[in-house]
TrEMBL record:
Full protein name: WG repeat-containing protein
Source organism superkingdom: Bacteria
Entry keywords, A to Z: Membrane, Transmembrane, Transmembrane helix
Positions of transmembrane segments: 7-26
InterPro entries with a match to the protein in the record: WG_beta_rep
Pfam family of the protein (one): WG_beta_rep
PANTHER family: DUF3298 DOMAIN-CONTAINING PROTEIN, GLR2918 PROTEIN
Length: 529
């Protein structure tokens, strides 16, 4: 008997432990919360003024502004609101007032939160200037337009541009040059004769305006062109040329190194890639080339195209050709998850390693996850599933949906074919394997945080992923509808009392928006106490 107890006791203990865990509930599972990404403005239903909630949907600005906007600058959110006495408040994303701009300034906008700079104008003319958060004048209001780039103010008077630093000191005057362009690391100017020169960010002349062309290439490197049409590379920091005038082309504003350049060998133009030291890192052996994108570049060799990495190694060996209607012989889909090469009226679909995984007899229009939509030379449309390897004929014209948040796999906008080559103007929501799932056609369809936002001249619908209508709006006077990550439907309307009248007063223009909020069930909600 004791032996029998010893034999069955361990399994019994395990069973009892499992029962206890089941009844107690086991380890607590915390529900993953969806963090809202942006603060929101709401409109009071009582005084019709505007307030705001933070990303936790807590009221941080009571509804007391005639206009209120939540904006983003350099990755930082802030609010800008107009009081009933026409002052302008600049506030943090928590509702703290950074500056109150007097009512004699209008059309206030933030140029830099870090540097505390505001663009302003007045009611007497259309000229603009700059003040700081202490409402001190940095740039007088005498310019047509202005902008802020690379810590410099670009000022546009009635003619040419001037450059000032953020303290208001004019570094480059329009009186001296015909044009002024701020590059990432220097200032390119042209004189009255149309010749190019180069200045540093202190306004000092680095290269006198005696050249036919100058443009930024990458970092501190500039391409300088002479009167023979040839280019050399110039290092602005070291103040020296790092190559001779041996290039006929050098890429503009490269996002990375190496960058594309062209030389002539025995009367033949050949392309290669050069780094920021002026060294050739990929030989000049291509008939043509393109800039690097996602660490790969398309090159042409012996009349056909391939794809190389930054070491010059082929991910895809040259074999593909440009077909009529396409700009490239090789195209990237889904940020490099797939590549498609074209050859002999076929599309060869490759994975991210450049390996061919399928081919279809036509031109690929788009790839939605594992679904390939392609069109044959006789304008017939098909869907091909990379998993099942099945092809389905579609008597529709499919297209990718408008860019919103990530669209679920297998959804397209679909235009119905009413004749051999004529399609109706309305776009329907199409799901692979089910066909058209929306009852109505629309001018645009966009997926945003779990819902399809569908707009036509007659209706503004929010559809669930199965095509059913969650909520409908009359499109008259609606400016925009968006869905937040935590499921709030944000509806902005034009005030019907003002509408889009061309001759509305400034005060009327400041009160053109009506904002309503709905939950994911389509019920109207309010943040008022």
């Amino acid at each position: 008997m004791p032996k029998l107890i010893k034999k069955i006791l361990p399994p019994l203990i395990i069973i009892l432990a499992c029962i206890i865990i089941i009844f107690i509930g086991g380890p607590k599972k915390t529900k993953k919360e969806v963090e809202p990404l942006t603060p929101l403005v709401f409109q009071s239903s009582t005084n019709h003024l505007y307030g705001a909630v933070d990303t936790k949907r807590k009221v941080i600005i009571e509804p007391k502004y005639k206009t209120l906007f939540a904006k983003q600058l350099d990755g930082e959110y802030y609010f800008i609101g107009t009081t009933e006495s026409n002052e302008t408040d600049i506030m943090t994303d928590e509702g703290k007032i950074l500056d109150r701009v007097p009512s004699n300034y209008v059309n206030v906008s933030v140029l830099s939160l870090k540097d505390k700079l505001l663009e302003v104008s007045n009611n007497t003319n259309n000229f603009v200037g700059v003040i700081n958060f202490e409402n001190q004048t940095i740039i007088p209001m005498k310019y047509n337009t202005l902008s802020f780039k690379n810590d410099f103010l670009i000022l546009n008077p009635l003619s040419n541009e001037s450059i000032a630093n953020k303290n208001g000191k004019i570094l480059v005057s329009s009186k001296d040059y015909s044009s002024v362009t701020i590059e990432d690391n220097g200032i390119v100017v042209t004189n009255k004769k149309g010749l190019y020169g180069l200045l540093d960010f202190n306004g000092n002349v680095v290269l006198e305006p005696t050249y036919n062309n100058i443009h930024g290439v990458y970092g501190n490197i500039f391409a300088v062109g002479n009167n023979n049409g040839n280019y050399a590379l110039y290092n602005l920091v070291n103040r020296n040329f790092i190559s001779s005038f041996k290039y006929t082309y050098i890429q503009k504003e490269a996002k990375s190194s190496p960058f594309l350049a062209c030389k002539v060998y025995n009367g033949v133009s050949l392309y290669g890639y050069v780094d920021s030291r002026g060294s050739t890192v990929i030989p000049f052996e291509f008939q043509s080339g393109y800039a690097f994108t996602d660490n790969y570049a398309i090159v042409q060799q012996n009349g056909v195209y391939g794809l190389i990495d930054k070491s010059g190694n082929f991910l895809i060996k040259p074999k593909y050709t440009i077909i009529p209607g396409n700009a490239y012989a090789i195209e990237s889909f889904q940020n490099g998850n797939y590549y498609v090469g074209y050859l002999d009226n076929k599309s060869y679909i490759m994975n991210s390693n450049g390996e061919v995984i399928a081919d279809v007899p036509g031109v690929v229009q788009t790839i939605s996850n594992k679904t390939v939509f392609y069109q044959t030379t006789d304008n017939k449309d098909f869907l091909y599933n990379l998993n099942t390897k099945k092809t389905m004929s579609v008597n529709l014209y499919l297209m990718p949906l408008s860019k919103g948040t990530l669209t679920p796999d297998g959804y397209f906008g679909a235009y119905k074919n009413v004749s051999k080559s004529k399609f109706v103007n309305s776009m329907y929501l199409y799901e692979e394997g089910k066909g058209i799932i929306s009852q109505n056609g629309y001018n645009s369809i966009k997926f945003e945080n779990g819902l399809f936002i569908c707009k036509s001249e007659k209706r503004y619908d929010l559809l669930k992923p199965d095509g059913r209508v969650l909520i409908s709006f009359d499109p008259v006077n609606i400016l925009n509808i968006s869905v937040t990550p935590d499921g709030l439907i944000y509806v902005q309307k034009v005030n019907p009392a003002i509408g889009n009248r061309m001759h509305a007063t400034v005060a009327e223009q400041q009160n053109t928006r009506l904002i309503s909020l709905y939950n994911i069930k389509g019920e109207k909600i309010s943040f008022e106490k």
